[in-house]
Write a structure and sequence with these properties.
This protein is α+β, with helices and mostly antiparallel strands and 640 residues long. It is built from 24 helices and 22 strands. 38% of the residues lie in helices and 20% in strands. Strands 2, 3, 4, 5, 9, 17 and 18 form a seven-stranded mixed β-sheet that branches. Strands 11-10-22-21-20 form a five-stranded antiparallel β-sheet, sandwiched between helices. A two-stranded antiparallel ribbon has the order 1-8.
Length: 640
C-alpha cells in the first residue's frame, strides 16, 4: 500500500513539473518576441529617443477667478505677462564657466548686475527645489521675452515663460479689502494640504483681504503639459515626439470661480478720490465706507494705501520696511480693523437711549453751559460759552457736550450700552469674508472682569460723548447710523454677493440679513428715531449746525460730526486752534451721514486722522461721496 502511494505522488509531481516547464517556456517566448519588437524592429527609433530626448512635465498655473462689481465691471482680474526662469540643471551639473556665460547674457538683457542675479537665482533654486524651474526674474517685458527666446537656441537653459499676473485696475483703492497674492511658503502649503486642498510648490495664494478669505473659491486647479526636449534642451515637435507615442495627454488648467461683490466700481473710485483734498488740511488719512439702505457695501477705502501688484512679483525689502514703518499703517484697513473712540458721532445713540428710557422727550430742555463740575473736576464743552437751554435735536445740531453729560449721569453705562450694543457697536457686525475687529462697548461688569476695578460714576460722562473706554470701527458706526436711517432696522452688512463657476452658475450667494427691528424687539418708538433724524438734519442744514457748510444744495442730507482728542489737554490749552498744533496732537475727525433725508438710500461714514475735526476733516469726504451717488442715481437733481 505504501508503494502505491509513492507511485501516485511521483506521478503528480511529474505532471506539475511538465506544466511549469510549459508555462515558463511560453513566458520566455513572449519576452523574446517583445524584446525582438523593441530592440530589432524599433530599436533604432527608441535608441534615438533614449540617447537624445527626454520628456518633461510642465506645470500650467491656473488663473485665479475675477472679482466683479455689482454692475459686472472688473474690480480684480488677470493679465498675461512673462517671467524668466533657468533650467535647474544649470546649477546641478554645469561648470562655473557655463553658469557665468548664461548669466552674462541674462544680465545684458535685464540690465542688472550679474553677481546679484546669480545669487538670487541660487537662493530660489534652493527654495523651489532642484526639479522646478529656477526663478530669475518674476516679471519681464514682452521685448525682453523675445530677446530671451532668440537666445534659447544657443542657451537652452534660458526660458521666458508666459504667466498670468493679477491685475488690480483700481490700484490703491480698496487694496486693504481686496488684499494681495504672493507665492505660498512651505508652512502654508502644508496647512492647505492638510485641509484637503490642492496646492503645489510655487503656487500663488491670497495672503490678505478677500484674496485670502475667498482663496478656496477663486484659486483654480493647475494643469499639466508634456513636452519632449533633445539633449540640448530644445523643444521637439509634439506631433512627432515620444509624448504622442506613449499616449501622454495634456491636462488643461481650470480657472477659479468668479466673485461678484456689492461694490459699485464708480463709487469705489470716488471714495478713494475723496481723500485727495486741496484745502488747508490737504490729503486725508483714514477710512470711508458707504452702505445702501439694505446694508450692502457700495464703497470701502483706506488711505494711505498701496498697490497690491507689487507683492506678486516680490516686494523689495525697502518698500516692505516703508509700509510697515509708516505711522498711518497702510496695510491696516481703517474701516473694519482700526478701532477708535467715536467722539460726538456717538451722541445720537445716547440720545436715542434717553428717549427710549423716558429720561427725556423731544421737547425736554436742559441747561448746557460751557462746562460741568462733577467729582472734583470740570468736564468741558467744545464751546467755551456753552449753548444755553437746548433740547435733544438742538444739542445734536450744536454737538453740546454738557447736555449729553447730564444724560449719561442720569442713565448710567449699563442702561446706555443695553440699547446701543444692539445697534451694532462694540461687536463684530458679522460681515462675511472680512477680518474685522470687535471694538468695545463697556459695562460695569466688563470693567470688574477686565480691570478688576469698580465703574466710577464720572466715567458715565466720558461714555456719553463717545470717549473713555469705548472703541468702535467705522463699519460699526455705518451700521448704527443705518439703523437710525431705517428707523430701527439692524442689518448684518454684506460685501460678497455671489460666487459663480466657470459656466456662470451661482454656487454660493449672500444677502444682508435683518437681525431685528428695534421698534419690535426693544420697543423703541418710531417717533424717537424721527426725533434723532431731525437733530441730524439740523447738523447739516440748521443755522447752528456743525456741518452746515458741508451740505449740498441739490439734496438734503443728515449726519453728525465727531471730534476725538488724541491726548488730554489742560484747561488753558483745550481751546487753542487745532491747526496750530503739531500733526500728532491734532484731533481725529468723524462724520457719518445719509441721504436723502426724506427717503434714505445711502449711509456714508468717514474718519480723517489728525484732521482737527469732523466738520473740517471728514464731512467734506462724506458730502463728496454722497454727491457722487446722487449724481449717478438721481441725475435729474443736478439739471436744475
Amino acid at each position: 500500500m505504501e508503494i502505491d502511494n509513492q507511485q501516485t505522488l511521483k506521478f503528480f509531481n511529474e505532471i506539475r513539473t511538465k506544466r511549469l516547464s510549459i508555462a515558463l517556456g511560453f513566458l520566455m517566448l513572449l519576452l523574446t518576441v517583445r524584446l525582438w519588437h523593441l530592440q530589432i524592429l524599433n530599436g533604432r527609433k527608441f535608441r534615438a529617443f533614449s540617447d537624445k530626448n527626454t520628456i518633461k512635465e510642465q506645470k500650467i498655473r491656473a488663473p485665479r477667478g475675477y472679482f466683479y462689481d455689482r454692475n459686472g465691471d472688473v474690480l480684480v482680474g488677470n493679465t498675461p505677462g512673462y517671467r524668466l526662469t533657468i533650467d535647474p540643471k544649470l546649477f546641478r551639473f554645469s561648470k562655473k564657466k557655463r553658469t557665468d556665460d548664461v548669466f552674462e547674457q541674462v544680465s545684458h538683457i535685464l540690465k542688472q548686475d550679474k553677481a546679484i542675479l546669480i545669487k538670487n537665482a541660487k537662493r530660489n533654486y534652493h527654495l523651489l527645489g532642484s526639479y522646478l524651474p529656477t526663478l530669475v526674474a518674476r516679471q519681464i517685458t514682452q521685448t525682453q521675452a523675445l530677446e530671451f527666446k532668440k537666445l534659447k537656441q544657443n542657451y537652452p537653459e534660458i526660458n521666458a515663460e508666459e504667466v498670468i499676473f493679477r491685475n488690480y485696475p483700481l490700484k490703491e483703492s480698496g487694496a486693504q479689502i481686496f488684499g494681495y497674492v504672493s507665492t505660498a511658503n512651505e508652512k502654508q502649503i502644508s496647512k492647505l494640504r492638510n485641509q484637503g486642498l490642492s496646492i503645489d510648490l510655487g503656487d500663488q495664494i491670497g495672503q490678505t483681504g478677500l484674496e485670502n478669505t475667498l482663496d478656496k473659491f477663486i484659486r483654480g486647479k493647475n494643469g499639466l503639459s508634456y513636452v519632449q526636449v533633445d539633449a540640448r534642451g530644445r523643444r521637439q515637435n509634439k506631433s512627432e515626439s515620444l509624448v504622442n507615442y506613449v499616449g501622454l495627454k495634456d491636462i488643461d488648467a481650470k480657472i477659479g470661480n468668479n466673485v461678484v461683490l456689492t461694490i459699485d466700481k464708480d463709487l469705489q473710485k470716488d471714495a478713494f478720490d475723496a481723500f485727495q483734498r486741496e484745502d488747508a488740511l490737504g490729503e486725508r488719512k483714514g477710512g470711508i465706507i458707504a452702505l445702501n439702505i439694505k446694508g450692502e457695501v457700495l464703497a470701502w477705502a483706506s488711505n494711505p494705501s498701496f498697490d497690491p501688484t507689487v507683492f506678486q512679483t516680490g516686494i523689495s525689502s525697502e518698500l516692505w520696511k516703508e509700509l510697515n514703518n509708516n505711522k498711518y499703517k497702510p496695510l491696516i484697513d481703517k474701516v473694519a480693523q482700526g478701532t477708535y473712540s467715536p467722539g460726538s458721532v456717538f451722541k445720537p445713540f445716547v440720545g436715542l437711549a434717553a428717549l427710549q428710557n423716558n429720561i427725556i422727550s423731544k421737547y425736554t430742555k436742559l441747561y448746557s453751559p460751557g462746562k460741568l463740575y462733577y467729582g472734583g473736576r470740570y468736564y468741558h464743552d467744545h464751546r467755551a460759552g456753552g449753548h444755553g437751554e437746548v433740547d435733544v435735536t438742538q444739542a445734536l445740531e450744536v454737538s453740546g457736550n454738557v447736555f449729553f453729560y447730564k444724560l449719561g449721569l442720569e442713565m448710567g453705562v449699563d442702561v446706555m450700552s443695553s440699547l446701543i450694543s444692539k445697534m451694532g457697536l462694540g461687536q463684530r457686525t458679522g460681515i462675511q469674508y472680512i477680518q474685522e475687529s470687535k471694538g468695545l462697548l463697556p459695562t460695569k461688569a466688563w470693567k470688574r472682569k477686565n480691570r478688576n476695578e469698580k465703574w466710577h460714576k464720572g466715567e458715565d460722562l466720558s461714555y456719553a460723548i463717545g470717549q473713555g473706554y469705548i472703541n468702535t470701527t467705522l463699519l460699526q458706526l455705518s451700521v448704527g447710523y443705518l439703523t437710525i436711517a431705517t428707523k430701527g432696522l439692524v442689518y448684518e452688512p454684506v460685501l460678497v454677493k455671489e460666487v459663480l463657476n466657470e459656466e456662470g452658475r451661482t454656487i454660493a450667494s449672500y444677502d444682508s440679513k435683518l437681525k431685528y427691528d428695534l421698534k419690535q424687539s426693544d420697543d423703541v418708538e418710531k417717533v424717537d428715531f424721527e426725533t434723532i433724524i431731525e437733530g441730524l438734519t439740523k447738523v447739516a442744514n440748521g443755522p447752528r449746525g456743525t456741518a452746515r457748510y458741508r451740505s449740498s444744495k441739490k439734496f438734503k442730507m443728515a449726519g453728525k460730526t465727531g471730534t476725538v482728542q488724541v491726548k488730554n489737554f489742560s484747561s488753558n490749552e483745550i481751546y487753542k486752534k487745532c491747526k496750530n498744533r503739531v500733526e500728532e496732537e491734532r484731533h481725529h475727525g468723524f462724520f457719518v451721514g445719509f441721504a436723502p433725508v426724506e427717503d434714505p438710500e445711502i449711509v456714508v461714514a468717514a474718519l480723517a486722522l489728525h484732521a482737527c475735526g469732523g466738520s473740517s476733516g471728514a464731512a467734506p469726504m462724506v458730502t463728496e461721496l454722497l454727491t457722487s451717488y446722487m449724481k449717478k442715481k438721481h441725475p435729474e437733481l443736478f439739471k436744475r
